[in-house]
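Sample intake sheet
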Amino acid sequence: MLLTLIIFLTRFLILGRKNIPVQLFNQAIKNENNGSFEAALITYESALNEVKKIRFHSNLKNKIIDKIKVLQTIIEYKNNFRFTR
């Protein structure tokens, strides 16, 4: 019981102080909504690197990976569309 409480408090303190991945994720969403897909991709990759350092945000990590895949597809589509016109 005591060990569980210590682990919970340690996790809370680590995650409470290091919200950098969440802030980067929010910034990337803003860039994506503004149409700056390249900037959003870079910010998502930075957020993914930060999430890998912390290791507690597995759900956020999966969301970021999915967003990166979608953005890469969108950017590739936009580049191909420019060349065909």
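Comment: The first helix runs from residue 2 to 17. The chain has one domain: 20-84.
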